[in-house]
Design goal:
By secondary structure, the chain is an alpha+beta fold. It starts with a strand and ends in a 7-residue tail after the last strand.
């Protein structure tokens, strides 16, 4: 049986990710004949046709590689496949070349190493044993012989033991396969002239040098853990974990780049190869996979889609993944994340969806990856990553200890229904709490409001023909007794208590009620431990079944993913050249439109306040800024604080209302410092005032960081740059106008010399 792997024949489309510049290392200009097969030459010709001709790649020489950088070429492909070569040195790889490739990977460059080039991996020091020796794969260099069978690779590891299915990995996209189920294999070369040269790590050796049995999943896990890699395929005839032949090595320590090795003898570019199209597709997939580093969105795939496609006739999981592929993967914005993969750097959002009939909560947890995935997901959210959990996957928010209580778990079968299922975000009976303007609903359609009931809702589950099949599987929070929240469903106290305890915001519930009978769509907000957001959607109406023709399924999902990927910002219109104060409830390491300063000490004469420039803002801590544009934009991260921190006399306001400034304190307005001498001066939210009595005295040893000073002469005052500031250009404000002092001359903000 011949078919396309992964999406069957539905997605036999173009490349998986956006293109980037790829380099092909040409180790020689005089390729050996190789019994008329020309494997290295054929690979070069294919690369030239498919990459160089379309300006997607370049062929570089051994001298060029000495200066290669990831900025110029994010991916480098090295292919060495020659008869009679004894080692890398014989292939022309001297110490300088190896050192250059090592530096390239350390700087973040990614490698595709095929056949004998796999030896480059340990040569650059990426596979160090405990005794500091390098763990090399085998080396084979025999001649061509006539074949009598088809050689394949197998992405179903341990098919007769504890199965580890890697077929969903993007490297296997659109490959032609033979066999079905556990017998599915990818052929790479047939019964033609070929070599039997395998360059791979045949056995599962540990870092301590011990050899492990190849029939124990624990040993495979140890191998992958020791070397920080994932085995993607073994020999085609292997049914345990022996003979890893396609491996992805993740970034580790000083090595910031990823590396894929393909060492199977079956991987051959020979002229006679009757399966050359699979060799080409496998290579293209690997180069594309390594090229794409700008992924924002991930869809978690702990199984292959060819497996998911046959699980359920209504295909709720398959349809969600297919939609993600069409709208994110194909457009270069997202990718599938497989079970054992290290989350790619830069990924902002991960979607985890699980919706199966007859799978209990324990089995669901194990299918999704068990403790290993739980810990990986927890660390992702702690580090600021955002997650969307839908249907049975909602329980993960409690598994990672971000939520206090587990949601209900539904796994019942399909039943017939003849009505539309809705979701509401306006809990009229709970203090008229209305969340329908939240950004996650930005793309929703068919919003209906019933004036008599006061409820507003969206349709989520509908069908063209009634009745239709659906499940009534709610995976949401509605056990108020267990939560010890005794307030009634129409009491705003229930909503407030739930949101306060969980640090969350309920966005949606059952569409047939105006009360809070169930919390079905929830946003869990960042806190002191978890810097990222988690949105959980457990309403039964959220069904990706084939019969559901409501576009709001896609609209809501798009809104959630977009919202989670969009950084939260604080914006303020400002005047370039003017100082101001700022105090925000969240931290920031990214801002535009101003330079930021914090109060440091009083000036030496005691009549001013020195400022020190900073490049990050702490949550709740007030600062002074100097605007250099018309708009200040601050990107916020992490958990919000409720109260401002007094910072060396700078006192901020995080209240929703203005606060009064006490007498004899200082305020900054229109580039002037004013001493408060009346009782009606106020400071607005996210601003600050100065208590001069709390500013530290001038230090015994002056600081040398970039500083300026707010100097109090009379009222109003000037704001000057310190004479001893080490910055090349000093800033001075006279009569409300900013000037730059450079090389003894004074320039205005437009660069015109005025003195």
């Amino acid at each position: 049986m011949m078919k396309k792997l992964l999406f069957l024949t539905l997605l036999a489309s173009a490349s998986l990710f956006a293109s980037a510049q790829v380099a092909f290392l040409q180790r020689t200009t005089s390729y050996p004949d190789e019994d008329g097969q020309h494997p290295e030459l054929n690979a070069r010709v294919w690369f030239n046709t498919n990459y160089v001709a379309s300006s997607k790649g370049s062929i570089i020489s051994m001298s060029d590689v000495l200066t290669i950088t990831p900025l110029a070429y994010p991916v480098l492909w090295v292919n060495v496949d020659a008869v009679g070569l004894d080692n890398l040195a014989a292939a022309g790889f001297d110490e300088n070349v190896i050192s250059a490739i090592k530096n390239y990977v350390k700087a973040g460059g990614n490698l595709l190493l095929t056949k004998q080039a796999s030896h480059i991996l340990p040569a650059i020091g990426r596979m160090k044993k405990n005794d500091n020796s390098d763990f090399y794969p085998g080396w084979s260099n025999g001649g061509y012989v006539s074949g009598g069978d088809v050689w394949k690779i197998n992405a179903i590891l341990g098919q007769n033991l504890v199965k580890r299915d890697a077929r969903q990995h993007p490297i296997f996209m659109n490959l032609t396969t033979e066999g079905t189920g556990n017998d599915e294999r990818c052929p790479l070369i047939g019964a033609v002239q070929r070599t039997d040269n395998n360059i791979m790590w045949n056995d599962l050796y540990r870092k301590d040098g011990t050899k492990s049995n190849n029939d124990d999943i624990a040993n495979l896990n140890n191998f992958q853990s020791d070397w920080n890699c994932q085995v993607l395929a073994v020999w085609g005839h292997v049914t345990d974990y022996c003979a890893p032949t396609v491996i992805e090595f993740y970034p580790q320590g000083d090595f910031k780049g990823s590396i894929i090795t393909i060492g199977a003898a079956a991987y051959q570019w020979g002229t006679s190869n009757d399966y050359i199209s699979n060799v080409q597709q496998l290579t293209q997939n690997a180069l594309t996979y390594l090229s794409y580093t700008g992924v924002e969105y991930g869809y978690y795939m702990p199984y292959s889609l060819s497996e998911v496609y046959s699980i359920d006739e209504y295909q709720p999981e398959y349809n969600s993944a297919k939609w993600f592929y069409d709208n994110y993967v194909e457009k270069g914005k997202g990718r599938f994340i497989h079970k054992d993969e290290v989350f790619p750097a830069g990924m902002k959002v991960l979607w985890v969806h699980h919706d199966r009939v007859g799978v209990n909560s324990t089995d669901c947890y194990n299918i999704l990856g068990g403790d290993t995935f739980r810990d990986k997901l927890s660390n992702f959210v702690k580090a600021g990553g955002n997650v969307f959990l839908s249907k049975q996957a909602t329980r993960l928010v409690t598994d990672i200890n971000r939520a206090t209580w587990y949601p209900r778990y539904g796994d019942g079968g399909y039943v017939e229904g003849n009505d539309i299922w809705y979701m509401t975000s306006n809990f009229v009976a709970c203090g008229n709490t209305d969340r329908h303007n939240h950004p996650v609903f930005a793309y929703m359609q068919d919003y209906t409001a019933h004036e008599s009931e006061g409820d507003c809702k969206w349709p989520l589950l509908n069908a063209a023909l009634m009745p239709y099949r659906r499940t009534d599987n709610n995976c949401l929070w509605d056990d108020w007794v267990a939560y010890n929240i005794s307030a009634g469903s129409t009491d705003v106290a229930r909503l407030n208590a739930f949101e306060s305890i969980q640090n969350c915001q309920i966005l949606g519930g059952f569409g047939h009620t105006t009360a809070l009978d169930a919390a079905g769509l929830i946003e869990f907000l960042p806190d002191a431990t978890y810097a990222g957001k988690v949105i959980a959607m457990g309403l039964a109406a959220y069904q990706w079944t084939t019969v559901n023709n409501s576009s709001n399924m896609q609209n809501l999902t798009k809104g959630i993913l977009t919202y989670l990927a969009t950084p939260e910002t604080y914006e303020r219109d400002v005047r370039s050249g003017y100082f101001g104060t700022i105090c925000l409830p969240k931290a920031s390491t990214s801002f535009t439109g101003a330079e930021m300063f914090e109060l440091d000490t009083k000036t030496k004469d005691g009549n001013g306040i020195e400022l020190t420039q900073v490049d990050a803002l702490e949550a709740g801590k007030p600062y002074i800024f100097l605007a250099n544009a018309s708009k200040l934009v601050v990107t916020l991260t992490g958990a919000a604080v409720a109260e401002a921190i007094q910072n060396k006399g700078l006192i901020g306001n995080l209240d929703d209302s203005d606060i009064s400034v006490p007498m004899d304190k200082l305020i900054l307005k229109d580039n002037q410092l004013y001493i408060v001498d009346t009782d009606n001066v106020k400071v607005a939210k996210n601003r600050a005032y100065i208590d001069p009595t709390q500013v530290p005295p001038y230090p015994t040893t002056p600081k040398t960081s970039a500083r300026c000073a707010l100097r109090i002469h009379n009222t109003p005052t000037d704001v000057e740059a310190l004479e001893n500031t080490p910055a090349a250009d000093r800033k001075i404000i006279r009569n409300g106008t900013l000037y730059i002092i450079h090389d003894g001359k004074t320039y205005n903000a437009q660069g015109q010399c005025v003195e």
